[in-house]
Design goal:
The protein is mainly α. Helix content is 88%, strand content 0%. The protein is built from 3 helices and no strands.
């Protein structure tokens, strides 16, 4: 085997190792991004407005699409399923809490309006 052939073989092996490592980090990055999004929803979704929800739904779809580009072990699939379930739970819970908070805010205002109207009618 000549020195040129040996150098080419070494370069090919190094390239294959780099490609393999890059694939693993990309695969893990997809899981980590899903985890970060889950934390974002957990911490902030109760305060989302309509535009935030549109962005969150699109982000979730993008994250799932990115995750689906890779092959995973059974344990990784279990983790992904758990994270997707957490995201869905936080989305439902956040939407519910946000709605209740908004209704509560307006309910107090409506109560004040009704007291003002009926209070004035009672004074006549």
């Amino acid at each position: 085997m000549g020195i040129r052939t040996f150098n080419r073989a070494c370069c090919c092996v190094m390239f294959a190792v780099m490609l393999l490592c890059s694939s693993c980090s990309t695969k893990q990055r997809a899981i980590n991004d899903l985890r970060k999004f889950s934390y974002e929803l957990r911490d902030n979704s109760a305060y989302y407005d309509i535009e935030d929800w549109k962005a969150a739904v699109n982000r979730f779809a993008d994250l799932r699409e990115n995750v689906n580009k890779h092959e995973y072990t059974a344990d990784e699939y279990r983790t992904i399923g758990q994270l997707e379930g957490e995201c869905a739970t936080y989305m439902v819970k956040g939407a519910k809490e946000g709605l209740i908070n908004r209704v509560g805010k307006y309910a107090g205002e409506l109560e004040g309006i009704l007291e003002g109207i009926f209070g004035e009618l009672g004074n006549d």
